[in-house]
Amino acid sequence: MRLIVLLLLFFLYGRNLTFGANENHSDFEGSSKFWSFVGPHKGTPPEINNTKWPNGDIDRYILSKIESNGLSPANEAAPQVLVKRLFYDLIGLPPTFDEMKRFSKINDEIEYEKLIDHLLGRPEFGEKIASLWMNIARYAEDQAHQVGNNEKFFYPHAHKYRHWVIKSFNNDLPYNDFIRLQLAADQIDEVSVQDVAALGFLGLGPQYYDRGRLEVKAEEWEDSVDVVSRGFMALTVACARCHDHKYDPISAADYHAFAGVFASTEIHKREV
Predict the structure, then answer these.
(1) Is residue 38 part of a domain?
(2) Do 98 and 215 share a domain, yes or no?
(3) Which of 29-43, 138-152, 199-213 has the lowest mean pLDDT?
(4) First vs last Cα of the chain: how many Å apart?
(5) Alpha carbon distance 167, 202 (integer Å)
(6) What tens digit of pLDDT does each residue of 57-92 get?
């Protein structure tokens, strides 16, 4: 089992993808040159006309694009607008009337940063960001398909995974640990009982009736490949189940090697 986990982590963290040999594969050489597959390098910020507007190099790239289209940056937003944007972006809730009165008076960058820290420290921050991650993790407490009153494949303890994600964001869990625990919490030494709930990332996927059939199991493996590759690699590896990927440098051999990890992994329901 440890070997399986190590192979999966290598696939996720490896600096280069290894592709299977296939005479009829897509243009791997060309697609692998796409910007997202090329290592980052330090570039030279573009020349701009309005040198007073940027606060940093990123702004220079933005302004360069704006100027190339014959446009000018919009005026700076009013304090009230900035406060509303911060509240919605960080905690998903509007400021109260009293908060609006208090924070709209901010006109100092340091005080503005203090407001950001204040919102990052509120429990609603974890709830807001977790809601975005739940979409990636295809979180659900039941199944889309159900025969009669059969709730065999429902997840009565799914909320514990949701709570774990919220707690992770609110406690500033390092992202590398956030990934490792969701993929292999049961294989990590000295992991807490609460952190085992992180495995809900893999365990809350769809399950189908007549699971003894190979083609049924293959559907579940595909879901695991899809959620891991989309969530952590921004790649639709599942597209290569039947043929080499048409746009990304992923071969059908890569897909089945990936799916083999889940084919040799058992998922058990247990309360933690």
Answers:
(1) no
(2) no
(3) 138-152
(4) 21
(5) 18
(6) 999 999 999 999 999 999 988 999 999 999 999 999
Cα 102–Cα 104–Cα 107 angle in degrees, nearest 5? 110
User: What separation in angstroms does the CA of 34 have from each of 38, 40, 62, 249, 262?
Assistant: 7, 12, 21, 10, 29
How far is C-alpha 25 from the geometric centre of its chain's CA atoms? 28
User: Tens digits of per-residue pLDDT, 110-129?
Assistant: 999 999 999 999 999 999 99
Domains contained in the chain, number: 2
* Consecutive H or E run containing 100: helix 97-103
Q: Which residue in the block uniquely carries the two structure tokens 């243009």?
A: 27
Q: Are residues 110 and 195 in the same domain?
A: no
d(CA 268, CA 272): 12
Q: Is the pTM of this model over 0.70?
A: yes
Residue written as token pair 């090697």: 257
Task: Give the angle subtended at the CA of 222 by the CAs of 217 and 225, to the nearest 5°.
Answer: 130
Q: What is the pLDDT of residues 128-156, one digit of tens each?
A: 999 999 999 998 887 766 656 666 667 77
User: Is 179 in the same domain as 247?
Assistant: yes
Q: Are residues 133 and 21 in the same domain?
A: yes
256 is written with which tokens?
A: 């089945």
- Domain residues for the domain of 224 are 2-32+126-141+150-263
Q: Do residues 120 and 129 touch, judged by C-beta distance below 8 A?
A: no
Same domain assignment for residues 115 and 130: no
